[in-house]
Amino acid sequence: MRRGIRVGVGFALTVACLFLGVVTAGAQSTLKVQAGTATPDQAVQVIQFYPATLTVDVGDIVTWTEGAGERHTVSFGTPPFLLNDPRVTAPAGGKSYDGTGFVSSGLIPPGPGPGYALTFTSTGTFDYQCLIHPGMVGTIVVQPAGAPYPASDTTYTPSSDPRVAVAIQAGTAALRSQTVTTKLNADGTMTYTLNAGLGDGKTFVLMRFGADSLTIHVGDTVTWVNNDPDEVHTVSFLNPGQNVSYILPNGQINPQATAPAGGSVYNGTGFFNSGILNPARAPLPDQRAYSLTFAQAGVFAYECLLHANLGMTGTIQVLAREEGTLPRSGDVGLGAVGLLGLGLVGIGMALRRLPGS
Ligand SMILES: [Cu+2]
Predict the structure, then answer these.
(1) Which one of 33, 118, 176, 224 has the fewest CB atoms closer than 10 angstroms to its CB?
(2) How far is ligand 1, taken at its centre, from the CA of residue 246, in Å?
(3) What is the CA(126)–ligand 1 centre distance, in A?
(4) pTM, whole model, 2 decimals?
(5) Spacing, Cα 187 to ligand 1 middle (Å)
(6) What is the pLDDT of residues 188-246, one digit of tens each?
(7) All domains in the chain, ordered by first residue
């Protein structure tokens, strides 16, 4: 009887459902979820599914489509591996899910098409997550076949989800608040520390380094720290013309991208790589920081091998250091240490002008 009613208002439902992105084919409907969204420049990636909870009927198909430049997975059940395992990006399981076992999309193919489709064959409430961003979670509620969908789902559009504006605002504020800290070392050199990743673990991840450009002097050290609990990054200086893809054409993760290379002193040439800077994610080892000392003047570009296509690139300008001078703070922020340094130079010059000294 209930099925008959649905067919009876078929035309109106078809018009409404096409508008809402729901396609009805006999008893089986296809319902859509969008994975993530972002600011137009891709700097703030929102790690949410839209809608967060979707109610379907047994036999329905759910498709997930990427909503922005960052890649995600849709993964039901507990993965039989840790989250630093190359298998996080690989598909697992079949085309349907009955509420048991591990079923995963692998990296959802980018583009507007239905990147991943899964048919639900049992009633129940099933949580899923993105294995790339463990804080990115969603729920599929599966009702008996023929049960009506909740009104909130049939009128839903991702762009009007109030969570989008909240997450974009939080991410944009975090992006603007990024700073570089400076420390004067005992040998007169400086150490600059900046983010290689920042996020709140549940709504956004930033695809920008802590500063787009940083000016230092020969002998200074730069330390990058991944302060995002949900995202991995690299800090990578490439040879001219060199291209190191994080994902190989066969879908596997490139070991050259994930392994540290080059050492700790950069002379302006060669492939220098932090390797994967993991979030602090137990039981994985804490591998958040990467330090490089710059021994050569010049302007050196670097990138995150995972996210350069989203604009996660940076430049270190290394100026020559005059013999016998105190280090300067560089061009970023003129921090307290830098002002102290200038003050000491000023005192030194004043002392030198004292008569008889
Ligand atoms: Cu990155």
Answers:
(1) 176
(2) 10
(3) 30
(4) 0.81
(5) 32
(6) 999 999 999 999 999 999 999 999 999 999 999 999 999 999 999 999 999 999 999 99
(7) 2-171 (2.60.40.420), 179-352 (2.60.40.420)
